[in-house]
Write a structure and sequence with these properties.
By secondary structure, the protein is mainly alpha-helical. It is 40% helix and 0% strand. Helix 2 packs across helix 3. The two termini are 13 Å apart.
Length: 73
């Protein structure tokens, strides 16, 4: 949410609009990727092939190590 708010405020400022003229909704959030945070798909495939394959079979319920599933988010 912080990055989204920051981007929104930059856009609003550039347009000359009030930078606090938006709403947030906690239902819109990012899933935490745990140990996979910051890795590319190629890196995950190389370093954790079995887990990556499990993710591909069920993206909704799969949670990376130390992360959360899309369902949880």
């Amino acid at each position: 949410m912080d990055r989204a708010r920051h981007t929104m405020e930059l856009v609003l400022a550039e347009l000359g609009l009030p930078t606090d003229n938006y709403r947030t909704d906690q239902r819109l959030c990012e899933a935490a990727y745990g140990d996979w945070e910051g890795l590319t798909i190629d890196e995950i495939q190389r370093e954790a092939r079995t887990a990556f394959d499990a993710r591909e079979k069920d993206r909704w319920h799969f949670a990376p190590p130390g992360g959360e599933s899309l369902q949880m988010a």
